[in-house]
C-alpha cells in the first residue's frame, strides 16, 4: 500500500504529444496530479477527463501539472484524447498492469463491450487519483474499485489552495501499532 509522505513507485511512460514522462523529473512546482483512468471503453472516464482537462490551466496556476494515464495502447489513448478534446492535458499510454498494481490500483477483467460499444481490454486498471510532491512522495491518494463516484476536481482545487496556504501536511502517514 502506498503511504503518504513516502515515495511512489516509478512512473515512466510515453505521452501522445509531450514526449517522455518521468514522474521523478516532471518538474512540477508544487504537485503532479496523476489521474489513472480505465481506458477508452469507459464513458465515465471520458467525462471525468474532460473536466480535468478543462481545469488543467487552473491547476497550472497553482504549480500543479496534470497527466492522465492508462494501460491502453497509443491508438486507443489517442482516441480518448480526441474524444476529450483538451490539449493542455497530457495523456500517457502503455501503463503495465504490474505498474498499476504497484500504485495500488485494482485490476478488472473484461466484460465484453461497454454501453458505448467499445470492447474492454482483457485486463485493465480501475481509477486512481494522486497528488505527488516534486520529491516523488504521496500527498493525496484516492483508489477505487469501481468507475463511479470519483473525487471532484473542483473540490481538489480548493483543497490544493487550502493545503498550500496553510502548509498542510500529507495525512494518513502513521504506520505504528494501533
Quick synopsis:
The chain is of the alpha+beta class and 178 residues long. Helices cover 28% and strands 22% of the residues.
What class, by secondary structure content?
A: alpha+beta
CATH class: Alpha Beta
* Helix-strand string: EEEHEHEHEEEEH
Radius of gyration of CA atoms, rounded to a whole number: 16 Å
Q: Globular, elongated, flat, extended or rod-shaped: what is the shape?
A: globular
First-to-last CA distance: 17 Å
Percentage beta strand: 15-25%
Main pleated sheet: 7 strands, mixed
User: How many E-type strands?
Assistant: 9
Counting copies of identical and different chains, the oligomeric state is: single chain
**Which CATH-level-2 architecture?**
3-Layer(aba) Sandwich
Query: How many separate helices?
Result: 4
Low-confidence stretches: none
Domain count: the total is: 1
Spatial sequence of strands, sheet with the most strands: 2-1-5-4-3-8-9
What is the topological layout?
Layout: E1 12-15, E2 20-22, E3 31-36, H1 43-61, E4 64-69, H2 74-84, E5 90-93, H3 97-102, E6 107-109, E7 123-125, E8 128-132, E9 138-143, H4 153-166
Parallel strand pairs: 3-4, 4-5
Antiparallel strand pairs: 1-2, 1-5, 3-8, 6-7, 8-9
